[in-house]
Design goal:
By secondary structure, the protein is an alpha+beta fold. It has ten helices and seven strands. Helix 4 packs across helix 5, helix 4 packs across helix 6 and helix 5 packs across helix 9.
């Protein structure tokens, strides 16, 4: 599995944040990649151009605190990067940051940070000498299950792709997943779109573009493997068919 130049810079920033004790836990595709690498997945996966995270503190941080915390961290570790904020967080909205090269002025990548949302389970990851705290594999799997169990799956087709990756290296522990969902106060939908609208899902999948020259597995392979992977948590198709 290759790490792009941009992804390496993003991991360097995540390391700087972690080692500076900033109260940010990471999530999203950068954590997914580290998680899969640690588990022994060697095939190429989809690339990303942003960092996602959660900030936790007793009091809500100001805009200045957010910027200065991250800027001081990247400066301390010699990263020639300027941090700016283009969207302040609010209820239901993450804070949005741009990280720019001080030399060229080029925007290297963006960062989306939720503030004081419910705390998921986390673990320490290490990839290519970079350590950071990110959400746990079981939390990622559970989160993606919630998405594909609803009509949101059409616009979040990447969550099916990510479960396809997980299916190669992680066993599916139904009881653990249900316990995680209960602790997070989240519930699954009826999987109607996933089970009965395969053609629409395939249309969304075909429109989804992988960055670079990365080849995309066939929809048939992705769908069949994910369906088999999560079969123990899917409702009976016949009973759902009567409800449609």
């Amino acid at each position: 599995m290759n790490i792009t130049r941009t992804e390496q810079i993003m991991y360097d920033v995540m390391k700087a944040v972690y080692e500076s004790n900033i109260p940010i836990n990471f999530k999203g595709s950068m954590v997914l990649k580290a998680c899969l690498l640690e588990a022994g997945y060697s095939e190429e996966i989809r690339h990303t151009v942003d960092i996602d995270g959660n900030w936790y503190s007793d009091t809500p941080p100001t805009k200045e605190q957010l910027i200065s915390s991250i800027q001081n961290a990247v400066d301390k570790y010699g990263l020639n990067i300027s941090v700016s904020i283009y969207r302040m967080y609010d209820k239901g909205r993450s804070a949005g940051f741009e990280l720019t090269s001080k030399d060229s002025g080029e925007v290297l990548f963006t960062m989306d940070i939720d503030v004081n949302r419910p705390v998921p389970s986390t673990k320490i990851y290490e990839i290519a000498g970079v350590r950071f705290r990110g959400v746990s594999p079981i939390h990622m799997i559970s989160d993606k299950l919630v998405v594909i169990s609803t009509d949101a799956v059409y616009r979040r087709i990447k969550d099916i792709i990510d479960l396809y990756y997980f299916s190669h290296v992680f066993s599916f522990d139904t009881s653990f997943i249900l316990s995680t969902l209960k602790n997070d106060e989240r519930t699954l939908g009826n999987f109607n779109a996933f089970l009965f609208h395969k053609a629409e899902l395939q249309h969304s999948y075909e429109k989804y573009r992988f960055a670079g020259n990365l080849s995309k597995p066939s929809f048939a392979d992705v769908y069949s493997k994910v369906k088999a992977y999560i079969r123990d948590i899917l409702p009976p198709e016949k009973s759902l068919d009567y409800e449609r």
